[in-house]
Amino acid sequence: MAPAPTPSEPGMREQERDLLHEVADAVGALMEFWGFKRVMGRVWALLYLRGDALSASELCDQLSISSGAASMALAELEHWAVVRRIRKPGDRREYFEAETDIWKMISRVMRERELVQIERALEVFERVREKLRTLPAPGERPRLDDIADRLGKLLDLARVGRGLLVALVQQGRVDLGPLMRFPRSRR
Amino acid sequence: MAPAPTPSEPGMREQERDLLHEVADAVGALMEFWGFKRVMGRVWALLYLRGDALSASELCDQLSISSGAASMALAELEHWAVVRRIRKPGDRREYFEAETDIWKMISRVMRERELVQIERALEVFERVREKLRTLPAPGERPRLDDIADRLGKLLDLARVGRGLLVALVQQGRVDLGPLMRFPRSRR
DNA sequence: TAGAGGTTTCAGAAAGTTTTGAAAGTTCAG
DNA sequence: CTGAACTTTCAAAACTTTCTGAAACCTCTA
In A, residues 39-78, which contact B (CB 8 Å cutoff)? Predict the structure, then answer.
């Protein structure tokens, strides 16, 4: 009973594992850069590449994380519909499998996270601009109006950003041309 | 000598300051969300709205930060060409003024930071896919090829992302249509 | 070229984030 | 209903990031 059947195969199991890890880490870095936890990216990538459903404990082994970390990462990934939880009949464990429609995942995050963020800022910009315009300021009108104008430029750009995001997420088709032609400030 | 000249003007100076702060904080939140330090956003926003150049110590006062924090934030903002340092003749202090071309700032960050990030991931994906394909794996070929195929899908999408970024940053004009039609995997 | 006024650096403090592991909670076969 | 198998929760530990303030360092002017 030879544990390594062929000499031309020096730990190919290990090599495969290392290769998957490399990709998982790259995706983890990308996800972290995009504001998620690094583990989330690693978990998703491993599930995605393997193609079949893995149990939580297998993930803990493979990625060297604690059961707590796995549970939390999986819960969050599930919340974003990036991973699905499935049960195999006759097995008490839960298995996890990756959503494979990557664009669906990305656009959902854009819609629910980035868009909210930009809309929050837009509200502040609009409200403050209005207040700046109506603030009684004897002799200071011109200065305040200048500030309000610059704020307006910021507002315009934020609206362009929102438009872009909406277009990207809804139709998957964008033409920046018309959007880029927003009010040009003097100087 | 009345300190508050008109009754119809209850601390309008303070009100103005608070309004600018609100915007600065909103921009700070946006910038933090985008992976920069919150202070950087606050500093830029204040300089931008005020319109004229401020000294470092004025910024410290206005934003309630230490001189160290101001110095570091300003250095980093300068590195991204988001703030310019200027000297007024006959004044020993340095003054800072905001770059007002916001799109220029954004596209520079996209080019130098996001693009690099995605290219780093692309290299890993490509290298690993090649290795997966050439790994000697008796009897395991079909499984490894499946993994390589899924990795290929990831690679395609990352290339689409890079294309988008490049288009956005270079011409300011994007058509997602052709880009979206990347190889469709079975199932 | 001395020194006053200003800026940068950096070690340590504070704040924030992620991970661990053990206890509490669930679920299901028997 | 019980208990073994599995999952979730959460307080504390580990780590990371950001901020402070004082010392070192510039840079002008007189």
Answer: 48-51
Smallest CA-to-CA distance from B136 within A7, A73, A55 is with A7
Q: In this structure, which CATH number among 3.40.1350.10, 1.20.120.80, 3.20.20.80, 1.10.10.10 belongs to the domain A12-100?
A: 1.10.10.10
Cα–Cα distance measured from residue A43 to residue A147, given in angstroms and rounded to the nearest whole number: 47
Contact B102 A154 (CB under 8 A): yes
Q: Within 13 Å and on the Cβ side, how many CA atoms surround B128? A: 29
Contact check, Cβ <8 Å, A151/B49 = yes
Please tell me which residue, B108 or B12, carries the higher pLDDT value: B108
Query: What is the largest distance, in Å, between two alpha-carbon atoms of chain B?
Result: 95
- Beta strands B83-87 and A94-98 are unpaired
**Residues B179, A36, A81, A167: is their CA dihedral positive or negative?**
negative
Chain B CB contacts of A107 under 8 Å are: none
Task: Sketch the domain layout of chain B as residue ranges.
Answer: 12-100, 103-180
Determine the pLDDT at residue B170. 82
pLDDT tens digits for range B42-67 = 999 999 999 999 999 999 999 999 99
How far is the CA of A126 from the CAs of A154, B92, B97, in angstroms? 10, 38, 24
pTM for the complete prediction?
0.88
Pairing of strands B83-87, B54-55: unpaired
What is the ipTM metric for this complex?
Answer: 0.88
Return the sign of the alpha-carbon dihedral for residues B126, B149, A14, A93: positive
Residues of B in contact with A140 (CB under 8 A): 12
The closest of A175, A21, A17, A138 to B177, measured between CA atoms, is A175
Q: Is A101 on the interface with B (CB under 8 A)?
A: no
Upper half-sphere CA count for residue B151 (Cβ side, 13 Å): 30
Over residues A97-106, mean pLDDT:
95
